[in-house]
Every structure is written in structure tokens, then in C-alpha cells.
What we know:
Distance between the termini: 60 Å
Order of helices and strands: HEEEEEEEHHEEEEEHHEEEEEEEEEEE
Number of helices: 5
Amino acid sequence: MKKHVFCTLYLVTLSLLSGCVKMPEEQHTSYETLTLSRETVTAPLSWSAAIRGTGDVSIVSRCTGMLNEIKVKDGQRVKKGDVLFLIDSRSAENVLAHAQADLQTAIANRDNARLEAESNKELAAQGIIGDYLLRKSENQLQSAEAACLQARAVVRDAELKLNYCTIKSPVDGLVGNILPHVGDVIAEGTMLTRVAGVSEMEASFSLTESQLHALVSELGSLDEILKVVPPVSLRFKEGGEYAYKGRVTSLSGMVDRQTGSITCYVTFPNPRGELFSGMQGTVVMPIEWEDVMLVPLTAIVRIQDKTLVYKVGKDSLATSAIVSIEELGDGARAVITSGAEVGETIVAKGAANVHENDRVIW
Length: 362
């Protein structure tokens, strides 16, 4: 009797459990997919850039003396020819005075030698003196003329050294940090400050070797690249865009062995003085990509040093594939350069959540 009751309870319990528990079903996940095709698209490429004035000049003393006066302040805007520094010029003035006196003496000696040579020429014509005295006086005249030329050169050199005592700006620009103080003894070759030319500014950035190769393959020589490259924009670090476009003016022409890159230079007008030497920014260049497989970055999965996409086969199963890509620089799209073929379907959105052999519904 007890055994019969136990069996009855077991059957009832099993019946209740089987009514509550369902067998697991295969999970299907819905993803947005994309069938790869080739197209032409224009998209920006961007590079970090350092900015400096095209006319940046180091101001260096070309004479020795005490610094008497500083005519400018840090950051002051100056014009070409404006006086920056005055160095004690008394010694240079004395040297010039002596050189000018020596020149006057040389001129007088030359004039006397000329008179004597002319007089001896007449005397020789009359047979009063011989050819020896005539030739001697003519040689003395040539020597006096040479001494006069030498004295003039010394005067010009002294004038230059006197001019060096007044240091002027060679360009329009902004004065940098002023290093010496009034009263300092300045030696020849001493760095005094820098003047940053600001009418035009130059942004320099690095093209990778592969980017350079792609440009040369498409456009030809470096000269051809400079002719056809489109205008370039500049973004400030805080995100704003500079109002004026720049032009690519030169390429360094040599690949850096350490970085594997080539330096590119873009010149921007700076009529309102918004750009300063030492600033950092981003140059943006619109590039036309022809006949490429374009995908959103949401289709790209990066695992360590590998870049993957998930291909969806006819059986709806997702399988990973290693690809090579070039990002377009807009933060949203990339070009697949290898690892996939036109006509294949990939997971376009949410690829980071896909697992190998997931069944994909689209």
C-alpha cells in the first residue's frame, strides 16, 4: 500500500515538473548587415600638425657691447625695420672715426701721388728725367690708389659694426621671450629673442610611407601632388575650425628612417593674427577614394593586433575574417583594402557583440 502511494506521488510530481520546464530553443539574433560593393567617396583625412610662422627668425647679436635699451616687450607686434635693441655703440663709433680719418689720409696720399706722376710724365716728355723716375711715380700712384680702396673697405666694415649696435626686426611678426636684460654685456652671437612672422603660418604634419606611396601611385610625382591637392582645413585643439583654407606648399622629399614618414607643409594666411607659433592643431584634407569597399566602423572589431569583420554565409552563420582597413578620418567609416570581396555580406552594426557561428537574422 505504501509503495503504491509513493509511486503515485512520484508520477504526480513528475507531471507537474514537466508542465513547468520547457526545453531550450535555438537563439536567433537580429543584426544589421551590409553586402560589400565598390563605390567612390570623398572623405577627409586628418593629421596632427604643429604650427609656426613662415618667417620665424632668431635675433642674434652681431657685435659685442653692453645692452643699453630694450625697445620692445614680449609678445609685441612689430614691423620689418622696427628697432628691437640698442647696444652701446661708443666703441664702434670710435673705430669708425679712426677708419674715416685713415681714409682721408689715403685719399690725400693718392692725390699727391697722382700729381707727382702727372708732373713726371711731362718732365719725361721733355727729356728732363728718365724713364725710371716716371715708372716709379706711376707705381707709387697705383699703390696709393690701392691703399685708398683698402681704407674705404675698412670704413664700410666699421659702418656695418656700428649698424649692428642697433638691432632691428627683419620681418613683420610677434616678439618672443626676451632673454637678456638692460646692462648685460652682450657677446657676438648671443641669442636675444625670436620674432615670429605671422602674416602666413605653416602647419607641418607627417604622411606615412603607405599614404605617400598611394598618392604617388595615383597622382605621379611630388610636383604633381602639389598641383592637384585640394585646399586644406585647420581644426583647433578645442574643436573649432579656422576660417581660412591652406595650401600644401612642399613635401620634405625624404622619408624619416625612424618614423617611416615624410613631412608635409601647409601654408595658411593669418590676416587677423589668430594663429601663433607653437600652436597645435589638426589639418584636414578631403581625399577622393575611388572604387573602394566602404564599411561603417561599427562593422570593425579589433582584438589585440587583429582587425576583424564578421561575414554572414548562406547558412546565416557569422564567421570572423581578418581584414586590412584604412579609416577615412571622419570617425565613422573605413575602407577595406584586403580580406573581403565584393558581394560578401558582413555584420554592419553591432559586430562587437557577435560570436563565432552565431546565427544571424537580417
